[in-house]
Design a protein that fits this description.
The complex is a heterodimer of chains A (about 200) and B (about 325). The relative contact order of chain A is 0.20. Chain A has helices at about 1-15, 30-35, 40-65, 75-100, 100-105, 110, 115-130, 135-160, 175-185. Chain A is globular. Chain A has nine helices and no strands. With about 200 residues, chain A is an all-alpha fold. Among the domains of chain B are: about 35-90, Electron transport complex subunit B, putative Fe-S cluster (3-methyladenine DNA Glycosylase II, Chain A, domain 3, Orthogonal Bundle), CATH 1.10.15.40; about 95-190, 2-Layer Sandwich (Alpha-Beta Plaits), CATH 3.30.70.20; about 210-275, Alpha-Beta Plaits, CATH 3.30.70.20. Chain B is built from 15 helices and eight strands. In chain B, the strands form four sheets. Chain B has a two-stranded antiparallel ribbon with strand order 1-4. In chain B, a hairpin with a 2-residue loop joins strand 6 (about 230) and strand 7. The chains are: A mainly alpha (about 200), B mainly alpha (about 325). Chains A and B meet through helix 3 and helix 4 of A and helix 1 of B.
Chain lengths: ~200, ~325
Amino acid sequence: MEQLIDILLLMLSSVLVQNFIFAKFYGICPFLGVSDKPATAAGMGMAVTFVITLSSAATWAVYYYILEPFRLTFLKTIAFILIIAALVQLIEMFLKKFVPSLYQALGIYLPLITTNCAVLGSALLNIQNGYNFVYSVAVGFAAAIGFTMAILIFAGVRARLQFAQAPKSFQGMPLVLISAGLIAIAFSGFSGINF
Amino acid sequence: MTILYAILWFAGIALVLGAMLALASIVFEVKVDPKIPEITEVLPGANCGGCGFAGCSACAEAIVRGDAKVTACPVGGQAVADQIASIMGVEAGSVTRMRAQVMCSGTRDNARQKYIYEGPHDCAAAMRLGGGPKECPNGCIGFGTCELLCPQDAIHVENGVAVVRAEKCIGCGICVESCPKHIIKLIPFDAPVHVGCSSLDKGALTRTYCEVGCIGCKMCTKVCESGAITVNGAIASIDYEKCTHCGKCVEKCPRKIIVFEEGKAKIEESVIEEAKVEEPINEAPDAVTPTSEEPTPAVITEKVKTEEPDTPTAPDSAENQAEETTPDSQTAENP
């Protein structure tokens, strides 16, 4: 029971306090790239959630059953990239066959995630923090939910920005980056909470 | 020793993952009709959604499934329809390439404003404030909602009125749906003449707020020899099936709102002069063909013109007629 509460608190902390985008600045590329419309942002969020959860499990197993016994932990970055890439391919084929509707919904975002640093970062953080298997998967899932929430919030903000009459020098990316920074400052308010 | 382990284990992991993917590609193989990628290849690939499907590949799937006709793509025109038809092994029929046209000429100098608008820079938002800042209830608001949505960057607001650049327009119809005033219409790509006004008000009223609004004087109807122009209520509309591109209405219009498409005007003027020398009524449509600027649409329309009398039951001609009658039906609804 105590462990369950511990996991839930850890998950909440991953979503809000240690938010991938606004606190750790992982996955900024997809965050800026596909937050044009709420619909595409939701698709990206779903794909990231899917991949991070599964890769957390796979990388944990590879690290503790292969890399650590043979003292190859210094190669974990390469190993994780390899595993994540293969995993994404596998998931893509699996979805295409058995869940075509989800495959259609995720679309191009699934293969794009192969090189997403949020996925790799999540796997590396799990190892760094010494989480066990259940913790790794739970925290990975929560972090991805945090990513999805952040990208959805930002898509909403950008939908409003489209109608703003900004000065010429601020139009487009500058205004987007400034608003992302403002939301990050707002999220830093959570950092006072310690679980 | 460590390096040996590293090489061995990584080779092992890579081998296992590779084998897994190879196996998965066989186990999870999804059989796709080879026609679908072929048709996707032929389609323009703009993913504009003008066909009513989610994108070009979705359209290709629908065509193969039989849910869409081979002429489903409004952008590709005859050339694409023919290619798809040859892949599907059926007859294509004929397609008219369409382009969007904003039926308003009320620039800032011409149309009176009833108030100064300072809200969100969006037509739909301005529309809710008493129908927008322009006094004309059917004038272009000019905040560029169509400009924002155009997948081809073909439409731009110039001096308060959206203007379509015909050479970029693919006729997907997204702007037509987005316009809160419903003043953007799809017309045949080669049509050089259009009525640049959508005003449904009576002439005397239109005259008070717009320098160039159609007043329904019927001068164009009288001068048109092919009977292509009709005036319903107080707005002229052109039946492009009958229009011979003679340009007499353009000369006659006292409000100068029946206009030649910009850029094409010069070519068409020379055509008119040629047509005048010969018999103006019958020879005009054939004389239009030498448009050096846009060779393909001219060829397309020529085909259409020659084919249409032979195949009167072609599905697309029926659709075109329906589209062109819309201004009339609107007039009837809003007297």
